[in-house]
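ESCALATION

Customer reports they have been waiting on this structure for their group meeting. Please prioritize. Original submission:
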Amino acid sequence: MDVQETTAACRDAFAELASPACIDDPYPFLRWLREHDPVHRAASGLFLLSRHADIYWALKATGDAFRGPAPGELARYFPRAATSLSLNLLASTLAMKDPPTHTRLRRLISRDFTMRQIDDLRPSIARIVAARLDGMAPALERGEAVDLHREFALALPMLIFAELFGMPRDDMFGLAADIGAILEGLSPHASDPQLAAADAASASVQAYFGDLIERKRTDPRHDIVSMLVGAHEHDADTLSDAELISMLWGMLLGGFATTAATIDHAVLAMLAYPEQRHWLQGDAAGVKAFVEEVLRCDAPAMFSSIPRIAQRDIELGGVVIPKNADVRVLIAAGNRDPDAFADPDRFDPARFYGTGPGMSTDGKIMLSFGHGIHFCLGAQLARVQLAESLPRIQARFPTLALAEQPTREPSAFLRTFRALPVRLHEHGG
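Update from on-call: job pushed to the front of the queue and completed.
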C-alpha cells in the first residue's frame, strides 16, 4: 500500500503488515490506519484497534467488555486447534484465561516470580552481559564485523532463562530453534507446514519441561521451577504439572524473542541517536527512561496475538464491533499515537524520565507490555536485562557502528531480526 496516495480503505491490515515495505518500516502504514481506519475489520473478520485511547480501554476492559475464548469455542477462533498441539497449549496459557481461573493461576505463579526475585538476578545478569561482551571484543578489536543479534541479543535472554529455570545452558540453546518454529506457527497467517513444524517443536519443549519438573522434584535447587514444584506442595492449591508446563511454555515464548528484539532495537537507537546516549551514562532513572522510549518507539510485538472476544456489541469511532467478534490491538500503532505522545516518531527518552514504569511525563501508558489483568508477567525481567545491558555496551564499545544494514525476519507479528552486524567505528570508517 502506498500510504502517500491511498484514499480507499485497506482491505486487510494483516496482509499489508506482512508486505516487504511494512517489514522494513511499518509506521507510515500504521499512521494511515490510525487516521483513516482506526477500527479495522480484516479479511478474516478480526477487528484491529490502532488508536492509543481505544487500545488502552480495550486492555483495561478485558474481563469485562472482552473475554478469552472458552474451551468449547477454540475451534471457532482457531480452526486448526482440533489437531494442533501448539494452539491447544496457547489456549491453556495464562494470557487466554479469564477470572476466576486467571486470578488463581496468576496468584500461584506470582508468589514465586516476584520483582524481588528478579532483582536478585541482577548480579547474574550483569555477569552474563560482561561475559558476552568479552566474547565479542576480540573480533571487534581486530576490525571484524560481529553479529550482535546472534552473539548478544539472542544469547542473553536464553542464558537468563536457563538461570531462572535452573536449566543447563546447552539445553536452553538447544530449545532456541524450537522457540522460533513455535512463534512462526502461531502467527495468524501461518501455513499448514509452519503449524506442523510448530507442533513438533511444542512436543519437544513440552517433553523437556515435563522431564525438568521431575528432576526438580527429586533434586530441587534455587530456581523458579524448583520453587513452583516443591515449595508449596502441601498448600491447598498448587499448580498441576500440566499447568506448570503450560506456564513455562508461555513464559519462554513470551519473553525470549521479544527481549532479543528489544535489545536489537535499543542498540540501533544508540547508533542512530548518539546525542541521546548520555541517558545511559548517568543515573538509573536515565537508563530507565532510555529503555522505556525504546519499548515505545519499537514495540517487539506489532499486535496482540491473543483473541479478545467482545462480550456485547461495542461501538468505537462510529464502528460497531459485534458481540463475539475477535478483537486485537495494534500495540505499535498505539505507541506512536500523537494524541498520547507528542511528536511520536521522535526518539526522546525525556518523556519517561522520573516517572513510574511505562508512564510518560504526560501520564500516558506505554503499551508494549499490555495493561490490565493480562499485563506481561515478565515485564520486570525484560527491563532488568535491558538496564543491565545498554550502559555496559555503551561503556565497552563507545565507537560501535553498523557494519551493514540489519536483516529482519519476514514476520508481520514480531519485529525481530536475523542479523545485526556491527563493528568498531575506527576500523569500519
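Sent to customer with the following note: The radius of gyration is 21 Å.
Escalation resolved.
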